[in-house]
Specification:
Strand content: 5-15%
Largest sheet: 7 strands, parallel
Strand order of the largest sheet: 3-2-1-4-5-6-7
Protein name: Glycosyltransferase
Order of helices and strands: EHEHEHEHEHHHEHEHEHEHEHEHEHEHHH
Radius of gyration: 21 Å
Bound molecules: uridine-5'-diphosphate
Pfam family, one: UDPGT
InterPro entries: UDP_glucos_trans
Keywords: Transferase
Shape: globular
GO molecular function, one term: quercetin 3-O-glucosyltransferase activity
Oligomer: single chain
Number of strands: 13
Structural class: alpha/beta
């Protein structure tokens, strides 16, 4: 262990951020660097699985009682107040630690304070981006888009002022919020993200969980700015283990259920850890899936469908035509995507899910829910051509047609396979992502001197 270098890794305390930052922390530990991983107390209590060995775990309060729903804006506010005060106090304590003081911070780019506080205290801080580089660039371009009148973000017009994405990115592929779908440019969630991206882009380096082969033009534009840019992903593919620190209990029973199905005959459906849908949307998905005739494995987290209970959802899925559906509250997703029986993934195109699909060469049907997912799904459908993008349409006929087309398309399967092969090369020794990770480790060591 190299005691002269001590990195504090601090993710935004949500599943889709914890996963890649923990994978990153593990990669650092593997190089002999001392790493402390910072959770909130609430999350640390919820973790079912153990963390990888060699990591020191610490936690700070997020300022909310355990039974608080932690909606995005309330959570963000509480983290900025109570969370940031506790973080500052912890950093001060870690700075003066007698054994191995913290020499560098890698914090989630969603939280400007997590980068600005260490900088104020004289600790170098790097920003880790858990989203795609293309959606990051879209967020960064947001003020310019609004200034140039490239709004509302629901239109089909092509976007002109996001460099590197001319010709295929439409306004409806730009990040979208929750509250104001007519005018995404005015949505408080989108504005918060855009502000955070603007502030954290000034960190001394930006780390992306992506590969140059997936997002070369966006990365090139970002690298032409002031910060150093590192594209080191997909991080999860560096380890053969599919174990991930889950905030929910995984239902492994679905693996035996998958074993009983023919190759490439099942549709896996998951909208990630945050999306909440209406009962009408649930019904449209269910009817569309049932009409395809394919068996499907559907992740329905408790509370994910408004105004209904898991028991009623199970009943509805069980009664759907053919009774071919299986519901779980949380799946071992990486294992599911590797299973021979799964033929496509109906996904919200969250960046982790997109990467996990890409690594397994799994064709995608995208129904993006919010923020970066709109941009990711456009890349899947129009750039990589590894799936189809339903975008903001949730109708049973469209679900049925799109799933059928993706399950049957040899072109999409071939594109997904080619992307998976390229990503294997990227993360292999001397591949672009591995070389970037080595360069990043050198950079962190130099900052820590
Ligand atoms: N995930 C999982 N089991 C599930 C659903 C999701 O393990 O049943 C994991 C998935 O593998 C991914 C993460 O949760 O690593 C979701 O992250 P993503 O960026 O795709 O979406 P978010 O949850 O942030 O919207």
């Amino acid at each position: 262990m190299d005691a002269a270098v001590h990195v504090l890794v601090f993710p935004w305390p949500r599943q889709g951020h914890i996963n890649p930052m923990l994978q990153f922390a593990t990669a650092l530990v593997d190089t002999g660097i001392q790493v402390t991983f910072l959770h909130t107390e609430h999350n640390l209590r919820r973790f079912a699985q153990a963390h990888p060995p060699g990591l020191r775990l610490l936690s700070i309060p997020d300022g909310l009682p355990d039974d608080h729903p932690r909606g995005f804006l309330a959570f963000m506010e509480s983290m900025c107040m109570a969370g940031s005060a506790a973080y500052r106090a912890l950093l001060l304590a870690l700075l003066s630690a007698a054994d191995a003081p913290v020499t560098c911070v890698v914090a989630d780019g969603t939280m400007p304070f997590a980068i600005e506080i260490p900088e104020e205290l004289g600790i170098p801080a790097l920003s880790f981006v858990t989203h795609s580089a293309c959606s990051y660039l879209a967020f960064l371009s947001m003020p310019k888009l609004v200034e140039l009148g490239e709004t509302p973000f629901t239109a089909d017009d092509l976007v002109c002022s996001v460099p590197g994405m001319e010709g295929f990115l439409r306004r409806r592929d730009l990040p979208r919020g929750l509250y104001c779908t007519e005018h995404g440019d005015g949505d408080p969630l989108v504005l918060k993200f855009a502000e955070a991206v603007g502030r954290t882009s000034k960190a001394c380096a930006l780390i992306f969980n992506t590969a140059a082969s997936m997002e070369r033009p966006a990365l090139a534009h970002l690298a032409s700015g002031t910060s150093d840019v590192f594209a080191i992903g997909p991080l999860h593919a560096r380890s053969s283990s599919a174990a991930s620190p889950s905030l929910w209990r995984e239902d492994d029973g679905c693996m035996a259920w998958l074993d009983g199905h023919e190759d490439r005959s099942v549709v896996y459906v998951s909208l990630g850890s945050l999306a909440v849908i209406t009962h009408e949307q649930f019904t449209e998905f269910l009817s569309g899936l049932a009409a395809t005739g394919y068996a499907f494995l559907w992740v329905l987290r408790p509370g994910m469908v408004k105004t209904t209970t898991p028991a009623l959802l199970r009943e509805a899925v069980g009664a759907a035509e053919g009774g071919k559906g299986r519901v779980v509250e949380w799946a071992p997703q990486r294992d599911v995507l590797r299973h021979r029986a799964v033929g496509c993934f109906l996904t919200h195109a969250g960046w982790n899910s997109t990467l996990e699909c890409a690594v397994e060469g799994m064709p995608m049907v995208c129904w993006p829910f919010f923020v970066d997912q709109q941009t990711n799904s456009r890349f899947v459908g129009a750039v990589w051509k590894t799936g189809l993008d339903m975008k903001d349409v949730c109708e049973r006929g469209v679900v049925e047609r799109t799933v059928r087309e993706v399950m049957a398309s040899d072109e999409i399967k071939a594109a997904a396979k080619a992307m998976a092969q390229q990503l294997r090369l990227d993360i292999a020794e001397a591949g672009s992502s591995s070389s970037e990770l080595e360069r990043l480790v050198r950079f962190v060591r130099e900052l820590s001197v």
